[in-house]
Amino acid sequence: MDGEEIRRIVRETNYVTWRRQGGWEPLVVTRAEGSRFWDSSGKEYLDLSSQLIATNLGHGNARVADAIASQARALAYAAPGFATEARARLSLALLDVLPKGLERFFFSTSGTEANEAALKIARAVTRRTKVLARYRSYHGATAGSISVTGELRRRAIEPLQKVPGTVFAPDCYCYRCPFGLTYPSCGVACAEYVDYQLSREGDVAAMIVEPVVGTNGVIVPVPEYLPRIRAITKEHDVLLIADEVMSGWGRVGEWFAVDRWKVVPDLLTTAKGITGAQIPLGLTATTAAVHDAFRDAYFPHGHTYEAHPLTLAPGTAAIEEYRRLDLLAKSRRDGEYLLARLEEIASKHPSVGEVRGLGLFAAVELVKNRRTKAPFNTEEDKVAGRPLVVDQVTGAMMKEGVFCIGWVSHLVIAPPLIVTREELDHGLEVLDRALALADAKAEPAT
Question: CB 3.0 to 4.6 Å from 163: which of 36, 86, 147, 334, for a disulfide?
Answer without folding.
Answer: 147
